[in-house]
Amino acid sequence: VENPRLFQRQAELSLIALEIGQQTGLSEMQVCHRVAAARRVRDKAPSVWAAFQDGRIDSARVREISSAVEKLERAASIERLDRQVVAYAETHTVIELRRWLKAFIARVESDLFNERADDERDNRGVSVVHGDNGMGALIADLPSTWLAAIEKRLTKAAKAFGKDDPRTMAQCKAD
User: What's this model's pTM, rounded to 2 decimal places?
Assistant: First the structure.
């Protein structure tokens, strides 16, 4: 070990996360992710952190905002987010906030949108997960435009079965 003090410090921090996880029913990794999200917001979005401390926004909203802070590449964009997001987060659901944050990122760093999309497209793929009872899941990470086209075709094919078909729309799409 190059630096025994650093190694000891990391081991101590790991034990703290483990202890918190045991007390709260969370995994050590969940604790570490929540701490990282809180630290990111505390360090980069002081208005959001103050709203959390005051109880005006909850931890779920802090995690969503932290995720957005992590995606933003410019300090000015993060500062702009910090100025605007609290008012929205206080009066909207987590799902609405998540949608607002996506739009915010696309709007304030629109010049980086295509670059991010290209990076994500490099991670495309399809996975098959075999589950219990003879069922499984097909997971496709594809560009949204492709997924929209696939969804449109599935819906058209499912409707072709007719209204008298006893299956649900979801079942028809799967079939």
Answer: 0.66
Which helix (H) or strand (E) segment is 175 a member of?
A: none
Going along 5-147, which residue ranges are E strands?
Answer: 125-130, 136-141
Residue found under tokens 């969940």:
30
User: Phi, psi (5° rounding) for residue 136?
Assistant: -160, -175
* Nearest in space to 88 (alpha carbons), one of 64, 110, 67, 111: 64
**pLDDT (tens digit, 9 = 90+) per residue, 12-35?**
777 887 888 888 888 888 888 888
Are the C-beta atoms of 97 and 88 separated by less than 8 Å? yes
CA pair distance 75, 88, nearest whole angstrom? 20
CA 88 to chain centroid: 18
